[in-house]
Amino acid sequence: MNNSAPRIGLYSNQFHAHMKRGIATYALQLTRHLIMQLAEPRIALIDCLFRSSDRANTPRFDQPNVEERLIPLPGRIFAIVNRHMDLPLLHLFTGKFDLLHAMQEQVPVLRSGLTVMTVHDLGPVHHPELFDREYARRWRISLDQGLKRSDHIVAVSETLADELREYRPDLAEQFTGTPLGISPVFMAPEDEEKEGSVLTAYSVPAPYILLVGAADPKKNLDAFIKGYILFHELRFGDVPHLVLVGKEDWGGFKSIREAIDQSGIREKIHFTGYIDQDDLPGLYRNASLFVFPSRFEGFGLPLVEAMASGAACLVSDIPVFHELGGTCVEYFNPLSPEEMAGRLDEVLHDSDRLTVMRNDSRVRGRLFTWEETARRTIQVYEAMLTADLS
After folding, report:
1. Does residue 341 sit within a domain?
2. DSSP state of 367
3. 319 in a domain, yes or no?
4. What's the confidence (pLDDT) of residue 1?
5. Exposed site from 29, 74, 309, 351, fewest CB < 10 Å?
6. 160 lies in which domain range?
7. Domain count of the fold of the chain
8. Helix or strand (DSSP H, E) at 83
9. Rounded distance, CA 383 to CA 112, Å?
10. Same-domain status, 285 and 177
11. Which pLDDT belongs to residue 254?
12. Distances 54 to 99, 170, 230 between C-alpha atoms, Å
């Protein structure tokens, strides 16, 4: 190992997460591809204290220039310390870095070295009504502290980078968009046998409309359920089933279940719970339509996964989805169940358009790779380290 090479720290309290979605996916996949492309720098992976049972979920990289460092505090406690105490505890536990990349909106206090922060969305800023008030308050404190402590900020989409420039125009030159990528499993050739066994294992009926995402308020599941019920009424019940994939642990999920039970079409709506990403390509590919009704997103990995898998997609008319889907997908107003119902009816009964959407989406979705995300992130690192030496 070259001890004169820069030492780069990659900090995330999600490395050990069991379900690799969202920020955990970003931390794992970006780290994996940074290590593949960064042969010279010394790299330290930094996580917070976690249960011994989570050890198996933590990535291991058998590379001479990669080391692991553990902050001996649970992530929640470390976050509190960072918000309220001006103490450089990270240096105490991990040593110093030439550059530290905080892979979420929480930047540790440092006394030396450069800092990069990743911002994943601005939900609590633009949509505080969708969050617990105390959570939104703490999140904004962490975000604003991170903006103050960071030398540069990467956003997970160009759209989000623009939103950050509007939020903090005084820092406009410090924001860079680094759109995310998808796993190669979503670009693999079709495997009819495996896909058939996945559909059987999860009792997925045909034909079906697919929605993937945890049932939290920003995913707008309650509004889409209303739209689907209206669609069912419009077509007198002659509609595809609705298959919902994702965790059901959000506190408001009970009310969604109750609304479905009272709708009279409970037999049409199916919940699979969380599904591992290796099983998702077949679910995307065999769906009559993939829908993504989010109120907002910083990026929207399920949309790009669905596109790369060859699904026809109908999604919310929000700026980031236009960045990702362009003219390959169709859009609806996420605040209007009536428009959702109309667009479902229109798109599902246009077979020619569905074929074009599937073909165009497959090509466009496969442009989003973690190799490119890592390459653009490294450009940020190199520009910062070069400027620091000059």
Report:
1. yes
2. T
3. yes
4. 42
5. 351
6. 7-181+370-389
7. 2
8. helix 75-84
9. 18
10. no
11. 74
12. 27, 41, 43
